Amino acid sequence: MSQKQSVAVIGLGAMGLPIAVNLSKAGFSTQAWNRSAAPAEIAEKGGVSICKEVSHIDAEVILVTLPDLPQLFEILDAGLRAALKPGQFIVIMSTTSPVEIVKFAQEMKTIGVNVIDAPMSGGELGAQNASLSIMAGGEESDFNAVKPVLDAIGKTILLMGPIGSGQLTKAANQIVVAINLSAIGEAITLARRAGLDANKVLEIFTGGLANSAALELRRPKIEARDFPAGGKSKFLLKDLHFALEAAKSSETELPMTALVTQLYAGLIEHGDGELDHSAIIREIERLND
């Protein structure tokens, strides 16, 4: 297989759009499909060839950046399945159930299509800067075949084990993100209620052991109390449920994850599911009203 494979990106959301543009910039022949026209128009200006129908996708490597597997199943039934060819690679960059991704890979194997689960971390900024952390699961030969594509959009790219291992790693990653953001939310709620300047408190955090990538990336939103979605809270809740599902199957107790999952469930119940996951501070503030 040539170094510069043909690539298709399915889903031009906050992550998929910059991924597609960066692949095109890196010299890959890049196609994309998206339900709505506006992101497709932006991608096209970035050198990406837009497929009007999903059945028109014809690439060696297909990257899926949809929210979850059910959305991919819809796309498969809408024409993608008929367009698939033996020898193609489907790289699932969505965060999905570690159990369901294994079933999907087995199904695709019957038609000769290779599946790699490769969820990502780094948020929209990481996607824009081609500096994503990508945790992959699958056969080593399949991983090596698609790695040149992943190298064009990520900085830290590792094969974690067989299919499903990427999703398990992402579940663990999301536990850290959710607990971190919840801890920041609690700390700043305490600071504000005690009369401290929250911006100064955040400045102290970023200069010491309390600092984290989550804090640095989400600090402006927390300071402004404005939470336009980067990573949506409803998707983080989905990820936490995947983590608890994996924990149950391995008989692992995750007490903090269970508590934080309840917090995010409350956030979504109060209508904030479309907000950035750093909006968890809103739920903590509600508990103190």
From TrEMBL:
The UniProt record lists the keyword Oxidoreductase: yes
6-phosphogluconate dehydrogenase NADP-binding domain mapped to chain residues: 7-161
Keyword NAD (UniProt): yes
Alphabetized UniProt keyword annotations: NAD, Oxidoreductase
Domain 3-hydroxyisobutyrate dehydrogenase-like NAD-binding: 164-282
Pfam families listed in its UniProt record: NAD_binding_11, NAD_binding_2
Gene Ontology MF terms: NAD binding; NADP binding; oxidoreductase activity
Protein's UniProt name: Unannotated protein
